[in-house]
Amino acid sequence: MDSAQVTERPADTPVRPAATVVLTRARAGGPEVLMGQRGAGAAFMPSKYVFPGGAVDRADAAVPLVAPLGEPCRSRLAGTDIAPDTLAAAAIRELFEETGLALGQPATWADPPADWQSFAARGLRPDASGFRFIFRAITPPGRPRRFDARFFLADASAVQGDVEDFSAACDELSHLHWISLAEVRRLDLPFITEVVLSEVALLMRGGQQPGVPFFDNSGTRPTFRRIT
């Protein structure tokens, strides 16, 4: 994939902007979240269970959202070289590629970018109005891949079609399935995914974030702060 932004650090892996969707649904037994497993041979987080997501493509900047991000998400995502709606578009595209699930609304779309043609073929344009920006993390130095990832919470009710149908998914994630927040930590999870899940559990209980958590590894010393 092409990168819309690359931050070079001496003698280290470039940091690529990325976006992730934490898709949830309400069930009688409590909230569930959608997870998938990365391949054993993957360069980044092999065999780990993760949320759908990945790097921003250059074409994501030109995607016409049928409904954009709302506030305060837009303001909290501002101030970088990546536009908030570009990050949202990337998250929707990655969700669609990796799971086959489409967050969109019926609308015409003339001449979509190559990576969006299958999405547009369903008669949809992407819809980011239901997104909530809940987390940001930059991968620490020394990793084979590094990302500046923004995590968006979304409800499965916004998906067009059957949320159990993963037949259109690519092969990047396997074992796609819904799992309750009470059981998800039984999976083999990366540390950062566990931290994000703690935030998701808080929000699902009706709690409030005192700003969006940000694990910042862009400098020489790890920093934690909150984006308000």
UniProtKB/TrEMBL annotation:
Q: Which cofactor does it need?
A: Mg(2+); Mn(2+)
Say which domain of life the source belongs to. Bacteria
Assigned keywords, A-Z: Hydrolase, Magnesium, Manganese, Metal-binding
* UniProt cross-references to InterPro entries, sorted A to Z: NUDIX_hydrolase-like_dom_sf, NUDIX_hydrolase_dom, NUDT19
Residues covered by the Nudix hydrolase domain: 14-201
From the UniProt record, list the coiled-coil ranges. none
| SUPFAM superfamilies the record matches | Nudix
Q: What is this protein called?
A: DNA mismatch repair protein MutT
